[in-house]
Design a protein that fits this description.
Blueprint lengths: L2 H15 L2 E4 L8 E4 L14 E4 L1 H4 L5 H13 L2 H4 L3 E3 L25 H11 L3 E7 L15 H11 L3 E5 L8 H14 L5 E4 L17 E3 L12 E2 L4 E2 L2 H7 L12 E3 L11 H14 L3 E3 L8 H7 L2 H7 L8 E4 L4 E7 L5 E7 L5 E5 L1 H10 L11 E5 L4 E5 L4 E5 L4 E8 L1
Parallel strand pairs: 3-4, 3-12, 4-5, 5-6, 6-7, 7-8, 8-11
Antiparallel strand pairs: 1-2, 9-10, 13-14, 14-15, 15-20, 16-19, 17-18, 17-20
Helix pairs in contact: 6-7, 9-10, 9-11
Bound molecules: alpha-D-galactopyranose.
Alpha-D-galactopyranose (GLA) binds next to loops.
C-alpha cells in the first residue's frame, strides 16, 4: 500500500470511529490532540422522517398565534395519528441580528413568549420540534446564519428542546460543503440531545456520497413548486416541478436508506395542484421512500387533501422498514411503472401517467420481469402469483394471474400493494 493511500485510510478510519487523532503541525511543534466527534448518527431516522414545515405556505410570515393554530390542527386533523411527528419552523423566525453575546434571538414580535415557550407548546401536543438555520453567514431570507457560531447555536437549540434542524446553504461563498455540514453535525452531537440533522444543500455537492453519518436526510435538488410538470422561473433561480424532482431521484435511488434519506423536498399536496396531481405527488414520494414534510395550511385543509396526506396504506409504503427506493420501469406512451420492494417479500407497484391524455393500462405481469431486470430489479411475476390491493380505491384488485385492465387518468396513478398468494 503506498504511503499516501495508507495515510488517507487512517484518517477515514479515525474520523468514522471518532478517535483522538494527533494533528501534525507543519512547523515541527508538538502534535496537538484533536477530539473528533463521531460521524455515526445512531438510529434517529430508521424510516423517512414525517412532519410539517412552515415554508411552502407561510414563507417568513409566521407568528406564534398562527402557528399554535397549525399545531392544534396537526393533531385534530389526524395528521399526528397518521404518523407525522415533526413540526418544523423554517426561515424567518429570528431577529435580523444576533444579541450582544452573539446568540440568535427569536423575533419578539413573532414569538412574544420566546422560542422555548413555543417549543414547549409543540411538545405538549405530543409532537417534536424542528427549527431552521443555514451554513452561511446569512440564511436565504437574510437572517443570521450559523457560520462561526455552530456550537453556540446548537447549544441554544438544545436548551429550547429542538429535535430537528434543517440546515440550508445560502451565502456560503467558498465553504466546503462536507466540512461545513460536519461542523454543525458535530456541534449537534456535542449537545448530547438527539437532534435529527436535515442537510439542505440542494444536491450541488452530491451529499448522497458523503452525508451518511453526518445527518439523517439531505436535500437532493433545488426548491419544489406546486406545479406538476412545469418549472417556475424566479429570476435568479428556478423552482422545480414535482415531475422534474421525481426524475432526478432515479440516478441516486441506490443511495437511499435508513438514517440517510434522499430528500426530494417538502410536499406541495393541498397547495393548488389537481386532486390527481396531488395524489400522484404523494404516491411517488412514498414510492421513493422520501421524507414526508407536508407544506399546506393544516388549518384549512380540504377533506380531499386530508384523505391524501393521511392515507395510512400509502404512508406504510413510504415507511417500510427496508427503506428501498422504487425502481422506475418505462412503459408505453406516457406511462411509467415504479416497483418498490417491501418487507416480507411484498411489493408496492405504482403506475404513473405523466401525459396529458388518459391511458388504458393493459398489464401482462409476466412481461414486466424482463423490463424490471433491465433496470436492475429481479421480479418473479412469471412464477409467483400475488394478490393486488388498490391502496387509493382501498379494495382488492384481483391477482397477477390476470391481465390488469384499468383506465389511468392524465397525471394520475394506480397504486397497488402486492402480497404473495
Ligand atoms: C431555501 C430552501 C427552502 C427554504 C428557503 C428558506 O430556498 O431550499 O427549502 O428553506 O431556503 O429561505
Amino acid at each position: 500500500m503506498n504511503t499516501l493511500l495508507k495515510y488517507s485510510l487512517t484518517c477515514v478510519v479515525a474520523l468514522v470511529c471518532g478517535l483522538q487523532v494527533k494533528s501534525q503541525t507543519p512547523d515541527g511543534a508538538a502534535p496537538v490532540a484533536i477530539k473528533k466527534e463521531k460521524l455515526t448518527t445512531g438510529n434517529l431516522a430508521p424510516t423517512p422522517p414525517m412532519g410539517w414545515n412552515t415554508w411552502n405556505t407561510f414563507q417568513a410570515n409566521i407568528d406564534e398565534s398562527i402557528l399554535k393554530g397549525v399545531v392544534d390542527a396537526y393533531v385534530s386533523s389526524g395528521m399526528k395519528d397518521a404518523g407525522y411527528q415533526y413540526f418544523v419552523l423554517d426561515d424567518g423566525w429570528m431577529t435580523m441580528e444576533r444579541d450582544t453575546n452573539g446568540s440568535l434571538v427569536a423575533d419578539p414580535k413573532k414569538f412574544p413568549n420566546g422560542m422555548k415557550a413555543f417549543a414547549d407548546y409543540v411538545h405538549s401536543k405530543g409532537l417534536k420540534f424542528g427549527i431552521y438555520n443555514c451554513a452561511g453567514t446569512k440564511t436565504c431570507g437574510g437572517y443570521p446564519g450559523s457560520r462561526g457560531h455552530e456550537y453556540q447555536d446548537a447549544r441554544l437549540y438544545a436548551s429550547w428542546g429542538v429535535d430537528f434542524l434543517k440546515y440550508d446553504w445560502c451565502n456560503t461563498d467558498s465553504l466546503n460543503a462536507r466540512e461545513a455540514y460536519i461542523t454543525m453535525s458535530s456541534a449537534l452531537k456535542a449537545t448530547k440531545r438527539p437532534i435529527v440533522f436535515s442537510l439542505c444543500e440542494w444536491g450541488g455537492h452530491q451529499p448522497w456520497l458523503w452525508a451518511t453519518g453526518v445527518g439523517e436526510l439531505y436535500r437532493t435538488t433545488g426548491d419544489i413548486t406546486a406545479n406538476f410538470n412545469k418549472d417556475k422561473h424566479m429570476g435568479t433561480w428556478t423552482a422545480l416541478s414535482v415531475m422534474n424532482i421525481l426524475d432526478k431521484q432515479v440516478k441516486i435511488r441506490k443511495y437511499n436508506g435508513p438514517n440517510h434519506w434522499n430528500d426530494a423536498d417538502m410536499l406541495e399536496v393541498g397547495n393548488g395542484m389537481s386532486y390527481a396531481e396531488d395524489r400522484s405527488h404523494f404516491s411517488m414520494w412514498c414510492m421513493l421512500a422520501a421524507p414526508l414534510a407536508a407544506g399546506n395550511d393544516l388549518r384549512k385543509m380540504s377533506e380531499q387533501t386530508k384523505s391524501i396526506l393521511t392515507n395510512k396504506e400509502v404512508i406504510a409504503v413510504d415507511q417500510d422498514e427496508l427503506g428501498i427506493t422504487a425502481y422506475r420501469i418505462p412503459m408505453a406512451d406516457s406511462v411509467e411503472v415504479w416497483i418498490k420492494p417491501l418487507k416480507n417479500d411484498e411489493l408496492a407497484v405504482c403506475f404513473l401517467n405523466k401525459g396529458g391524455q388518459s391511458q388504458k393500462l393493459n398489464v401482462k405481469w409476466a412481461e414486466l420481469d424482463a423490463a424490471a431486470k433491465a433496470e436492475g430489479l429481479e421480479t418473479k411475476f412469471a412464477s409467483v402469483t400475488y394478490t393486488l390491493r388498490d391502496v387509493w380505491a382501498k379494495k382488492a384488485a384481483g391477482t397477477t394471474k390476470s391481465v390488469l385492465k384499468q383506465a389511468i387518468a392524465s397525471h394520475d396513478v394506480v397504486m397497488l400493494k402486492l402480497v404473495k398468494k
